[in-house]
């Protein structure tokens, strides 16, 4: 009795989806046509007349899907020529970024624009390298402050706090572009990447490439522990497509299990190293200060150092004992035994022969 109803609902849903997809495709085609007309317009007045009043407004709270860059640590909404035709010919774009607690906008650069970033709330930590031969520039940008990030500079933003922060960035190009450094580097031929990293094997390059998450990732382990957060699965949709020139060698691949295992081992090693350093620098820190790991590490470190110390003491004791024996033997002298029983030893007397004198022989 329900079969005709279910079939009718399925057909209706399929029709709605098809109509929605058709409408989206038509809207995209109309926007592309409008952008093409704006780019070829013979003056600003013509561009203005091609736009409707509403075309001059961009809704950052309800943007078109293609304007959003989403990651596990936050997202960015960009109003540029790709989704906001009104900026065509005006030489600017604008982005609004939303960083979650411990969120990191990974190192990237804008190939065609300089960025002026304004912190709306909280504090945003930024780092930048302009080019080879220049120093690393580090700043904490507080609410109400801004920072200039020159065109082509490699930079990042991180929210090293436990509350969300927002920033606004103005870019002096309607098509600024964004080049994520990690994805682009590992998108090169694996042999080139391995050689650039100091002759790392191709298998390792493939595994590392398969572990790179999208921009806007969850940040440092220290921040995550401090804020009580865990690093879960992160999207990895921004990988550079593989073609003949940068393809992985046949038979070499990194499965999800291998990548996850490598990630877990790397984080475990890095965390253990950090805990050891913290234990050495602050051996009396409470166990809760670093998630309860400092105290066991401190105990283990003390045991290892104690065992090594005992070993060195034993070696030192053996060395000095041998040295003392050698010194006692230095003053000894050899005593020739007495020969009071010498008569018991048989002896043979050898007659003494006169020395031969040739002159005496002739005279005789």
TrEMBL record:
Sorted UniProt keywords: Manganese, Membrane, Metal-binding, Secreted, Signal, Transmembrane, Transmembrane helix
GO cellular-component term (any): extracellular region
Protein name in the entry: Cupin type-1 domain-containing protein
Organism: Sparassis crispa
Source species, domain of life: Eukaryota
GO function terms (MF aspect): manganese ion binding
Transmembrane intervals: 299-320
Pfam families registered for this protein in UniProt: Cupin_1
Protein family per UniProt: Belongs to the germin family.
CDD domains: cupin_OxOx
Keyword RNA-binding carried by entry: no
Signal peptide (residue range): 1-18
Cellular localization per UniProt: Secreted
Record InterPro entries: Cupin_1, Germin, Germin_Mn-BS, RmlC-like_jellyroll, RmlC_Cupin_sf
Gene3D superfamilies noted in UniProt: Jelly Rolls
């Amino acid at each position: 009795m329900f079969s005709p109803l279910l079939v009718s609902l399925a057909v209706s849903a399929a029709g709605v989806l098809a109509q929605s997809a058709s409408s989206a495709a038509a809207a995209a085609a109309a926007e592309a046509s409008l952008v093409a007309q704006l780019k070829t317009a013979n003056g600003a007045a013509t561009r203005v007349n091609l736009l409707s009043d509403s075309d001059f407004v961009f809704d950052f709270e309800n943007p078109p899907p293609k304007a959003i860059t989403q990651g596990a640590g936050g997202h960015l909404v960009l109003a540029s020529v790709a989704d906001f035709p009104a900026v065509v010919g005006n030489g600017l774009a604008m982005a609004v970024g939303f960083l979650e607690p411990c969120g990191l906008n990974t190192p990237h650069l804008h190939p065609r624009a300089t960025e002026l970033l304004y912190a709306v709330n909280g504090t945003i930590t930024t780092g930048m390298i302009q080019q080879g031969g220049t120093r690393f520039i580090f700043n904490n940008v507080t609410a109400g402050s801004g920072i200039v990030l020159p065109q082509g500079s490699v930079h990042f933003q991180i929210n090293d706090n436990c509350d969300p922060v927002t920033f606004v960035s103005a870019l002096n190009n309607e098509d600024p572009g964004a080049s994520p450094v990690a994805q682009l580097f590992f998108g090169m031929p694996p042999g080139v990447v391995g050689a650039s990293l100091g002759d790392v094997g191709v298998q390792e390059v493939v595994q590392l490439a398969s572990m790179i998450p999208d921009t806007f990732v969850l940040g440092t382990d220290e921040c995550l522990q401090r804020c009580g957060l865990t690093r879960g699965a992160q999207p990895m949709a921004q990988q550079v497509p593989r073609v003949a020139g940068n393809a992985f060698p046949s038979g070499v691949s990194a499965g999800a299990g291998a990548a996850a295992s490598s990630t877990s081992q790397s984080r475990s090693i890095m965390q253990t190293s950090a805990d050891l350093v913290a234990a050495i620098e602050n051996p009396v820190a409470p166990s809760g200060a670093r998630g309860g790991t400092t105290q066991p590490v401190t105990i283990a470190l003390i045991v290892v150092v104690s065992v090594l110390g005992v070993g060195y003491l034993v070696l030192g004791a053996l060395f000095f004992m041998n040295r003392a024996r050698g010194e006692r033997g230095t003053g000894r002298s050899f005593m020739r035994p007495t020969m009071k029983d010498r008569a018991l030893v048989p002896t043979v007397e050898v007659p003494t022969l006169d020395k031969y004198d040739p002159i005496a022989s002739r005279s005789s």
